[in-house]
Write a structure and sequence with these properties.
Keywords: Lyase, Pyridoxal phosphate. By secondary structure, this protein is an alpha/beta fold. The protein is built from 10 helices and 18 strands.
Length: 377
């Protein structure tokens, strides 16, 4: 939803070209909501969702920890005011020299999912704490994250034993149920797997202490989503079911759920056309597309809410596309998007729920279109 502060900024500043506007008040509210929903879990904001310095500084001041995917993100979190003890190097695919740099900066918590990654951490960050990522099926997620990251639970046991043998501290287990997860019970089976890994390690004299329950918390696009409180209750119930009174330390890594609904992209209609005289589906081209920040429209996985000044008038099905000379730069075609019939060239549109994974996906000037501008208010 577009806040009054965002509307006022766009109206008074009139920024040229497509841009993202993020309302920090919404980010603050989201952080407090997560803290209330899961009061016993440490919040590690997923920096990759939106690394704007203003967002990181706000979250650092509120007491957030940070999940970082690279040395650059680690340095951003430190610059924003976070101590190294509040940072997790959560990427399972790291160069050894990057691990060494993170360790030199004071980071002591690392994700792994293979024996080979354990060996790199042992060489570059001796004595560090590690947690092993376990595969999940991602069922119910609009942006699944399975296969590339993690290993099966049986291998996670071997990986953590190996880490212990190499002098690392085998600290825990992590998983990610998939981004934009809409199933409340999605964490249940993953926590069951985590408990089995805990038990297997205990049989070998290694006591794990932490479960990183990842992100997956959604933001609202076109469909309603459960509340953070509902997710908190479901996760807490699953934790008690599988761990009883011996609850581990827990981490959550909200990214989309922290900043998604705080941002709105202002865009403009560049062209409307049809492919033949009797075409019943109109093409609407915007000045932003997949390469300008809307990469998550790939396979039409994320369907954003789009607001225009002509809403309430008659609509027709439209194919929405971006401005670049690339045939892949089409946002919605398999399921056309209903847009006002009167929508025309030069009209402004607001793409809501775009605070996460937009500026970071618009890192290069493809076709000469500059990366997405960002304003944080």
């Amino acid at each position: 939803m577009t806040t009054a502060r965002i509307r006022d900024f766009i109206r008074t500043r009139r920024p040229d070209g497509p841009c993202l506007v993020v309302d920090l008040d919404v980010v603050r509210d989201n952080f407090q909501t997560f803290r209330k929903a899961l009061p016993d879990s440490s919040i590690y904001y997923a920096v990759k969702a939106n690394p704007a310095p203003e967002i990181l500084a706000l979250l650092a001041a509120l007491g957030s920890n940070f999940d970082c995917a690279s040395v650059a993100e680690i340095e951003m979190a430190l610059k924003a005011g976070a101590d190294a003890s509040r940072i997790s190097y959560g990427n399972t695919i790291k160069k050894e020299r990057d691990i060494a740099r993170a360790f030199a900066l004071g980071v002591g918590l690392y994700a792994v999912d293979s024996h080979e990654e354990v060996e790199k951490v042992a060489r570059a960050a001796p004595g560090a704490r590690v947690f092993c990522r376990v595969l999940t099926d991602g069922e119910g997620a609009e942006w699944p994250l399975s296969r590339k990251f993690g290993c099966v639970p049986a291998m996670a046991v071997d990986v953590l034993v190996y880490a212990h043998q190499l002098g690392l501290i085998s600290h825990g287990v992590s998983f990610h149920v998939g981004s934009q997860m809409t199933k409340l019970d999605a964490w249940d089976s993953a926590l069951a797997d985590a408990r089995r890994v805990f038990d297997k390690l205990l049989q070998q004299g290694i006591t794990l202490k932490m479960v990183n329950m990842g992100g997956g918390f959604p933001t609202r696009y076109l469909k309603d989503i459960p509340t953070a409180e509902a997710y908190g209750q479901a996760i807490s119930s699953a934790l008690r079911r599988h761990f009883g009174n011996q609850l581990p330390e827990t981490i959550i890594e909200p990214g989309r759920g922290m900043v998604g609904n705080a941002g709105v992209i202002k865009a403009e209609v560049v062209l409307t056309s049809r492919k033949c005289d009797n075409d019943n589906v109109r093409w609407v081209y915007l000045d932003i597309g997949k390469f300008g920040g809307l990469a998550e429209t790939m396979d039409e996985a994320i369907r954003y809410s789009i607001v225009t000044d002509r809403d309430g008038e008659a609509t027709e099905p439209c194919v929405l596309a971006g401005p670049t000379c690339d045939s892949a730069d089409v946002l919605y075609e398999k399921t056309p998007y209903a847009m006002p019939v009167s929508l025309t060239i030069g009209d402004e549109v607001l793409i809501e729920g775009t605070g996460a994974y937009t500026t970071t996906y618009s890192a290069v000037a493809f076709n000469g279109f500059e990366p997405l501008k960002s304003y944080v208010i």
